[in-house]
Amino acid sequence: MRQGIAWVGFSNAGVLLERRAEKGLLGGTLAFPSSGWDGSDLAPPADAPWREIGTVRHVFTHFTLDLVVATAPLAQKPDRGNLVALDEFDPKALPGLMRKVWDIAAPKDPSAPPVTASRARTKKQG
Questions:
Q1: pTM over 0.70
Q2: What is the fold, at CATH topology level, of the domain defined by 2-125?
Q3: Distance between CA 56 and CA 65 in Å, rounded?
C-alpha cells in the first residue's frame, strides 16, 4: 500500500493543475499537484490554508494507493502548476486517479464559484 497527497487549489482564475513528468507513473498527463505516492517528496504547490477533505483509493496493476485530497483557496501565484479556468477544465481529460480526486474536490454546486481566498475572508468576517 502506498500513500500520498494531492492538492486541489482554487482561485478566481480557476483550478490548479500541472503536467506530470514524461517518465514515471501517469507520465505526461495533466494532474493535480501531488507528492509521496510516486517516490517524490514535494512541498505543497502554494502557501495556502490546505484542508484535508477525504481520501481516494486507486488500484494500479502493481500496487494500491491511498491518496489524501486537500483543498485550499489560493491567494497568490502557486510555486508550481498552472491555473486553468473552470469553464475550460474538462475532468474527463484527467487520468482515472485524478478524476477520483476531482470527484471529492469539485465544487458541489456548479453554479456557485469555488471558495477563493477573497470569499474565504468574507465568510470568516461575516
A1: yes
A2: Nucleoside Triphosphate Pyrophosphohydrolase (3.90.79)
A3: 8
